[in-house]
Amino acid sequence: MNLAIWLQRTAQLHPDRPALLVGTDAAADYREFSRRVGSIAGGLRAREGIAPGDRVAIFARNSLAYLELLHGIWHAGAVAVPINAKLHAAEAAWIMEDAGARLALCDPGSLPDLTRRLSGDGCKLVAINGDDFDSLRTGFAAIDPVERSADDLAWLFYTSGTTGRPKGVMLTHGNLQAMAFSYFVDVDPVSPDDAALYAAPISHGAGIYSIQHVMKGARHVVPRSGGFDAGEILGLAEELQDVHMFAAPTMVRRLVDAAKAQNMDGQGIRTIVYGGGPMYLEDVIEAVDVFGPRFCQIYGQGESPMTITALPRDTIADRTHPRWRERLASVGTAHSCVEVRIAGRDGRTLPAGETGEILVRGATVMAGYWRNESATAETLRDGWLWTGDMGAMDEDGFLTLKDRSKDVIISGGSNIYPREIEEVLLRFPGIREASVVGKAHPEWGEVVVAFIVSHADADVDGEALDAHCLENIARFKRPKHYRFIDELPKNNYGKVLKTELRRMLEAKDE
Asked: Quick count: other Cβ atoms within 10 Å of Cβ 193?
């Protein structure tokens, strides 16, 4: 079944419901949303010659047009290739060519550079909000959603590429349908009164989450800023009410800081689903103290989008369970649509409490990597997705992340998990952020280095941090060096770029 059927059904049943908003201003109801999407699909087929299965790229910042295009591409039976808007034009052009995109819809400012970098004329570029785009969404007769099967591709998501060229994750209509159904069961209900606020990139998880909000006829809101501004979001929530948003942990941290500064409590926010990186224990405790029980956590990857484990709001807000701190530091239990286990290098399941690689199997796991059989064979083995993440599962099924396997530090033959040290460092007064990496050492293999961002008025030094670590973790795990910096390098999704931290260490040594 084509995902686009859900928008068509909602428009038929509830045509007058508000659908698209910029800030608090209504831009379209579901009748008009569906009409625009149908016209885009008709134009893709008739004017651009897009056939079912063809790839159509979107290289743009958040906007209502982005949502219309995303659903229009699916409606036409094509495959959406959303590209991180903060990538360099050279990186975006590489993705377009690797995907074999026939068409790319782009922010106008990126067109000159993309034109220079794309080889040949295989990919046509169209400016979003230009005349060609306007005619695409207004000038064609709507067509019915093109028939698609569960195994047909819907979304080609390119990974961040921290270890070389990014890989194209192939997500099918069936994958995304299972994700949407699992959301209702494992994460949060959705109602027509909800307002899905797109402050995180639509090219990533926030865009995928549009699906279940379309199914339920909820509102879709793009902030006037087009991105994340903590003050703007807090103000919008009070006006819109029943706001749902997906946020990276760093975004949650900024929302909490802004709310405290303005003596606000998140009134109007119904749900913040956080994921995409580690949410440290002290941060989530403070977030619940400030906002109340408005948080859900998900853990997933591009390869199993948003759907490996979930920690629902009642568990996050619970302070009565004897092990509530351990559960709150976890990423929850397996989504209904998948199996999750912890395995050693030989693939055998490890006992509860032991650390190994996280494996996932189920309806949301990708079909494979685009035109990359070797990477697919390495990652998908006997039906299981080898995530590259290290974790431990307790006897109740709660999964606690340790680190990416590539981030584990091996010092003197012992495995050291940076997140454990980061959690301890963040409990020290005055520390705002911390990130731990390994540094090559001729005798020990690697030693632990901590990068520290402190509050402006804090008095923090390495000697005090060393004493703090020795009181809380084994001596061999404590950092051997502390680097105090103004901010941690991050991508646009809020993930700390540990590769950049390692480069900083290498540059210092040189």
From this structure: 14
Length of the chain, in residues: 510
Tell whether 504 is covered by a domain: yes
Which amino acid does the sequence have at 24? T
Here the tokens at position 39 are: 């016209």
Q: Indicate the pTM of the whole model.
A: 0.85
- Would 498 be classed as within a structural domain? yes
CB-CB contact of 496 with 277 (8 Å): yes
The pLDDT of residue 492 is 62
Residue 37: which residues within 8 A CB-CB, separation 6 or more? 4, 7, 68, 71, 72, 75, 137, 142
Q: Could you list the residue range(s) of the whole structural domain that residue 428 is in?
A: 408-509
- Rounded Cα–Cα distance for residues 354 and 71 (Å): 43
CB atoms within 10 A of CB 378: 11
Q: Which CATH number does the domain housing residue 495 bear?
A: 3.30.300.30
105 φ, ψ (degrees, to nearest 5): -100, 125
Encoding tokens for residue 320?
């009565």
User: Per the domain annotation, does 54 fall within a domain?
Assistant: no
Within-domain flag for 55:
no
Counted domains in the chain: 1
> Using N-to-C axis directions, what is the helix angle for 64-75 and 5-13, rounded to 10°?
110
Mean pLDDT for 102-109 is: 96
Nearest to 290 by CA among 322, 254, 320: 254
Contacts of residue 289, Cβ cutoff 8 Å, sequence gap at least 6: none
pLDDT at residue 413, as a whole number: 66
